[in-house]
Amino acid sequence: MPDVVLDPNFEANYAALSVKSDQTWHKNFGTVHLAYFKNGLRAQLTSQGFKGDEMLQEGLAELLPSKTFKIRVVPKTKSTIETVLEDGVVYIQMTPDHWWYNASDAGKGLVQLL
Question: Global pTM?
């Protein structure tokens, strides 16, 4: 799928993380976003078989018309890190308390969303 958009959602995530009492997240804010995309999403897409499977790629393209993967900090999740599909966007989301937990799981379960 060409022209994929990786949206770090910096402004909204910064605002969401500002509620934390421990402000050490400032030091690695950009690095963590990169880790979610590079060490997580990219590795998950490969391990789930997207790299060599045209059917999976086509299925993802149909569900993802925006071609956008976006990181989102939310108030509540069902697990440490979640992969959800909403309005044609795949969100990699976590709570402020789980910021930078399990970055390698970013994108986990994507194939189940198809």
Answer: 0.92
